[in-house]
UniProtKB/TrEMBL annotation:
Pfam families: F-box-like. SUPFAM superfamilies: F-box domain, RNI-like. Residues 41-91 form the F-box domain. It comes from Mycena metata. This is F-box domain-containing protein.
Length: 466
């Protein structure tokens, strides 16, 4: 065989390179054709950015979320990096000295949302302070360093700040030690002119200086020293009177002071959710004095509801609210206990009743119309509470009872079922339900479908006709 000369080898190499280029082009064309079959690949960049924005908000607690999107493909990486709005939501975790400047530079001139889950380093302050003029939402949680930042806020202006959350906790502080954990509200119109959402945990303020708000959340920290400036009921009423557009109110062990003898109703017709975790007398008074619409969701967690006698008075405004014209139609009742009440002295034992307009969510209480959590001292007290609450509800419309998360006795089940005349579907633990049907008090001919649970896991759906 004749050896090939250099020109022949070069010619063959040129031909092979041309063939390789042709194959690459055909492969790229094939990839483009394949990608057109995936709807996500046909979306314009503007719509991709909106989708990514929802993802960033939903995964704000995951510091890997942005990196996950960027690593999917080159196109997503380019779209994500070129969108300042996606970098304007910043969560500062460990070693923010590296990630924070990068996110700030990529956010352009967008208003900033900054969240610090553990504000425990002075580096957090040094990184945040140069950008206070751009901050629209600020959420700080941590020990003493949070107080240092709060005190420095008195000399700063936040012209864009709309939402402020400060959560101070310090488990090294004695319960009697006085801590100056106050938020300065002087010259508020100049320093925080747009503030409309305020959430304070273990932080107190000159309450008379609060501006009209859309959202207010106040929580007392029981392990961060003595309160220097608690909010009295009179202070709170003044804040509520100045906030007619209030949409959300959350109060947890924060109120002090006497109950006023008389007070005109306070209209809060935009109130979407009223969440009270206070002494029973404060809950009862606020339910009476606040004039909110029938659509307002109610959450009541009062530690001193121990039996049926305790709950009687507070059910009057609740009964009126749930039956008001225009109120959502209550169709589902969910029961929940921490324990099965074999030991009533168990700490943190509770009994919760939640009402929904449709099927309850898999977890949590979101979407409820009404939730009340009590601390019955015995199984008998639990039945008293259950009986009184169900009588206050519009039970003529309740068709579903969910007791999967409640360990209830046969006697308690009998109490519940007897007060729900149109019940069609129930869920509960099989042992108690089986015992109930052996002694059933349901009307003859009543058809009830039960999903019976064994230890909260095994499931047996049975149709019961009595």
């Amino acid at each position: 065989m004749r050896p090939q000369t250099d020109p022949e080898i070069s010619a063959r190499r040129v031909a092979l390179d041309a063939e390789i280029r042709c194959l690459h082009e055909r492969l790229a064309l094939l990839k483009r054709e394949r990608n057109t079959l995936a709807p996500l690949s046909t979306l314009p960049n503007e719509l991709l950015v909106k989708i990514f924005h929802f993802y960033v908000l939903a995964t704000a607690a995951d510091f890997r979320a942005k990196g996950t999107v960027i690593s999917v493909c080159r196109h997503w990486c380019q779209v994500f990096r070129a969108a300042p709005t996606l970098w304007s939501h910043i969560v500062m975790y460990w070693n923010p000295e590296q990630s924070f400047p990068l996110e700030i530079s990529r956010s352009g001139a967008m208003p900033l949302t900054i969240r610090v889950p553990n504000f425990s380093s002075t580096s957090h302050s040094s990184l945040i302070l140069p950008h206070v003029a751009r901050i629209q939402s600020l959420d700080l949680r941590g020990p003493r360093q949070v107080l240092d930042f709060v005190q420095s806020m008195a000399a700063l202006a936040f012209p864009l700040l709309e939402s402020l959350t400060i959560n101070f906790y310090d488990y090294t502080v004695g319960n009697e030690e006085e801590i100056d954990a106050r938020l300065s509200l002087e010259r508020l119109d100049e320093r925080l002119p747009r503030l409309s959402e305020l959430s304070l945990f273990g932080i107190y303020a000159n309450w008379a200086s609060l501006p009209p708000l859309h959202s207010l959340s106040l929580t007392r920290s029981l392990r961060s020293g003595a309160i220097l400036n608690p909010i009295t009921l009179d202070d709170l009423l003044a804040v509520l009177e100045s906030s007619p557009a209030l949409h959300y109110l959350y109060l947890c062990a924060i109120l002090t002071g006497a109950i006023p003898e008389k007070h005109a109703p306070i209209p809060v017709q935009s109130l979407g959710h009223l969440d009270l975790r206070e002494n029973l007398v404060y809950c009862q008074y606020l339910l009476t004095v606040l004039a909110f619409p029938p659509s307002t969701r109610l959450t009541l967690h009062s530690p001193n509801i121990l039996n049926g006698a305790d709950i009687r008075a507070i059910l009057i405004p609740i009964h009126r609210h749930l039956r008001a014209p225009g109120a959502p139609r209550a169709t589902t009742v969910m029961l929940r206990t921490r324990d099965d009440f074999h030991d009533p002295e168990e700490e943190d034992t509770y009994f919760q009743i939640a009402v929904y307009a449709g099927p309850p969510p898999p977890k949590g209480d979101e979407g409820h119309l009404f939730v009340i959590r009590t601390n019955p001292t015995s199984a008998h007290a639990l039945r008293q509470i259950l009986c009184k609450v169900l009588k206050a509800l519009p039970t003529e419309m309740v068709s579903h009872l969910d007791g999967r998360n409640a360990r209830l006795s046969c006697k308690t089940w009998s109490t519940a079922l007897a007060l729900l005349p149109v019940l069609e579907h129930g869920r509960g633990h099989v042992s108690a339900i089986e015992e109930h049907f052996q002694q059933s008090s349901l009307q003859p001919g009543h058809r009830l479908t039960m999903d019976c649970y064994i230890n909260g896991e095994g499931k047996l759906a049975v149709a019961v006709v009595i």
